[in-house]
Amino acid sequence: MQYDPIKRVLGEAFNKTPFLRRLFYHLLDLLLLRTWHIHKELRAWAKTKRQQPLQILDAGSGFGQYSYYLSGMSPKWRILAVDVKDEQIADCANFFQRIGRHNVMFRKEDLVTFQDPEAFDLVLSVDVMEHILEDVEVFRNFHASMRPGGMLLISTPSDQGGSDVHGSEESSFIEEHVRDGYNIEEIQQKLRSAGFSRTQAHYSYGAPGKISWRLSMKYPILLLGTTKLFFLLLPFYYLLVYPFCLLLNWLDTTGKHPTGTGLIVKAWK
């Protein structure tokens, strides 16, 4: 199914006032397991860095929820949030201006061609690389744009059932994906070939996360794709299922998984 039309509807629904936009971000933080993993990694990275004047690239910023989170962690950080979609950039820029988050700047850029030599201490790429065919070119651009010692943090589907693909005869649950998922060794090899000196990777969306993803994301998206009337039922649906998802998300982020449908990858220049 196509995910972009559903994202557009959600954006329109929650972009009417700053309060609704903030509420939307908090709901994403609660519901999206990938956000739990990314926030955990960002908190670990930021332990000794909150008082340092750092530069951060949010590469593929989407709704802007990670730029919002990062900009609230330290007023000393400056964040450049880039995305290829005009409407996302315009919506986010308007919201951040209205709430006075002046340490974030939004700009339309294509990651296949974007470089800002040795500008960033952290590059964040959340669920972006599965949408880009020219992945090694993007990794090279990330490497060129990072300062020595900087870190790249990636969340992306794995080849162990990522994008809800479990066999060669199946296609991605999300039509906009150009690949179903990365092999854990493959993505690290590509990052090393792009110039990164060190990499780490582990699986996310293990056994607990797979169940949580189906309950909190897959089934609601399928129903929303069928009829917009399901928007009226969403609050009642989540009242029933979210207590279970909360426990499953905690188990997924605190445990180690021999396999999983997602990958959390870090690389250092």
What does this structure look like?
The chain is of the alpha/beta class. The protein has one domain (4-268): Vaccinia Virus protein VP39 (Rossmann fold, 3-Layer(aba) Sandwich), CATH 3.40.50. It is 48% helix and 18% strand. The chain contains nine helices and seven strands, in the order H-H-H-E-H-E-H-E-E-H-E-H-E-H-H-E. It has helices at residues 4-14, 18-31, 33-46, 65-73, 86-99, 135-145, 184-193, 207-226, 230-254; strands spanning 55-59, 78-83, 104-108, 120-126, 146-157, 198-204, 262-268. Strands 3-2-1-4-5-7-6 form a seven-stranded mixed sheet, sandwiched between helices. The protein starts with a helix and ends with a strand. The relative contact order is 0.15. The mean pLDDT is 89.
